Amino acid sequence: MSINHRAEAERLLASADTSIAAALEGSLPMADQQHAAVLTGILTNRAIGHALIAQGETAAADASALRAALIVWRDIVSHAVAWNLSFAETDEQHEPWLELAEQLSKAGLDVRADVDRITPDYGKNPSGVWKPPTVQREEHLRWCAEMPTPWDKTDTAQ
Description:
The chain is mainly alpha-helical. It is about 70% helix and about 0% strand. It has helices at about 5-25, 30-55, 60-85, 90-105, 110-120, 135-145. α2 (about 30-55) packs antiparallel against α3 (about 60-85), α3 runs antiparallel to α4 (about 90-105) and α3 crosses α5 (about 110-120). It is elongated, with a radius of gyration of 22 Å.
C-alpha cells in the first residue's frame, strides 16, 4: 500500500495546529497543556518526515525545510513556556512548564534564552519566572520590607 506523503504531511500539520491551540488554552489542566505542547512537536516532526519523502530529494532543500519547521516549532513552544511560567499562580501550575523546559534542554532543544527574551514582553523579569511563584512572592515581600517608604522618614526641621 503506497502512502500519499504530501497528504499525510498536511494532515499531521493540521493536527499539530490544533494541538498547539490546546497547549495555549488556559482553561485546560496544566498537564493537558504540557502534553499538547509535546504532541505538537511530535506531530510536526512526523509531518516534516513525510514532507521530505514527498519531495523526493535529500539535498539542501530538505535541510532548509527541516530548519524552517524547527524554527517555527521552537518559537511556538518558547512562547507557550514563557507565558505559562510568567502567569503561573501556584507552584503546581509552574512546575510542569519548568519540567518541559528542562526536558527540552536535555534533548538539545534548550528554550531558556528564547523564554528569557520573550518574558519582558509580558512585563516579567526573565530571571524571576524560572523560580516557583511562592519563591517569587517571598522575594518580593522581602524586597518591600527592605525598601524605605516616604512615611519612614522623620521630619528633623521641626
